[in-house]
Specification:
The structure is a homotrimer.
Chain A lengths: L2 E7 L5 H16 L9 E7 L4 E3 L2 E2 L3 E8 L6 H16 L9 E8 L5 E3 L10 H9 L25
Parallel strand pairs in A: 1-2, 5-6
Antiparallel strand pairs in A: 1-5, 3-4
Chain lengths: ~160, ~160, ~160
């Protein structure tokens, strides 16, 4: 669900760095929880003299561009907390190494998305819980689309 | 209008594969219909050890990231049908070749878009119909911005 | 804030061309005004036979994909003016050189964004004004989040 594009100068990160960064960030999303395999990182080198900040060349700049698909962050408190949490997690890979950096997140439609040919199940559904556990996409039944915590008491069915 | 970015491992597709995939998908959009030249594909190789899924390296992953600009898909039925149609069309290029894959679509503003310096004409307008036929962008008159099926009967002008 | 991705054929632009284009566009944003360092350009070469328009290979195509983060363009008049202004500014780099081109802009959430670990201050705030002047991100106080033109006269505090 989150697609992280990381644009970085050539040689900024080793294969191990990339793995470490993606692991740390995946851990944060997994704590929501969402299935770990929803988190995709694609690292991309920016060619020399191909990055400009404010009209000036900057070959020391790392730009994170993230798509959130599976979840919309609700409300200003959680949104600020999330941005600050990410900044803390990425700090060892940017700030602590002397890079300039910027991160922005877009929120794209949940219902225009599929994985391995499967349309992901609803949030907090039985099927999603199973996907979290199995850590891979698989077919699911209509019954599995129901919430894990299904409540059908009188008067609250229309919540 | 749709911009398809296809991130794939080096060597996944020949030039002919890329043409075939873009032709098939273009055919689906053309059936809407929208002008064929609205459909743009950019294929991009992911460098070795630069793709991570769930924090683990995956050098066998193909990620489609699509921007829809000219049309918003209306309603859940059509949205699901569209995602499933795309999955069917791309299957020979991903599933049938043993790749892992994911596709997500964003819908971006119609009115912040231009082609060859021309702001595209309204949906289903006379000008759009001409663009479909000529398969290229060109200037159009205010009269050509009217709908192909213009209805001005009493009582329905405010539809 | 604006992130400009420029997908272009190999060799389309020299380092000086890239600087010139980013400078011109940065100048337009700076006139809004927004801090110049908000404007980021990343140029990316499209490999041969990796770009298709309407299902046909097009190795002469330049695609601008822009994210607007800090500002939403208000109303149809300003939105059309903006698109036409950009087309005019980029013309020497596309039209006048015989390239085909297309530009589209997305508007992404202001509150899911940070720069150098700082969440950017509100529009037209004291802090933003200081960022414009210093042309770099830095910490700011709660008082600096207030509007530059603060009006607290009776009856208009709830604007």
């Amino acid at each position: 669900m989150p697609l992280w594009k990381v644009y970085h100068p050539a040689g900024a990160y080793t294969a191990q760095d990339k793995k470490d960064l993606s692991e740390r960030v995946t851990g944060l999303y997994a704590s929501v929880p969402i299935p770990q395999f929803y988190v995709v990182f694609i690292f991309e080198e920016i060619a020399e003299d191909s990055c400009f900040v404010g009209g000036e060349p900057n070959n020391n700049f790392i730009r994170f561009r993230v798509d959130h698909i599976a979840r919309t962050l609700p409300g200003p408190v959680i949104r600020e907390w999330w941005v600050r949490s990410l900044d803390e997690i990425i700090a060892p890979f940017v700030k602590d190494r002397g890079y300039d950096w910027e991160i922005s997140i877009d929120e794209t439609p949940f219902d225009l998305w599929s994985l391995q040919g499967e349309i992901p199940p609803p949030f907090e559904s039985v099927a999603e819980k199973r996907w979290v556990k199995e850590n891979k996409a698989s077919p699911y039944t209509p019954a599995e689309k129901l919430p894990v915590n299904l409540v059908l008491n009188p008067g609250i069915a229309d919540r």
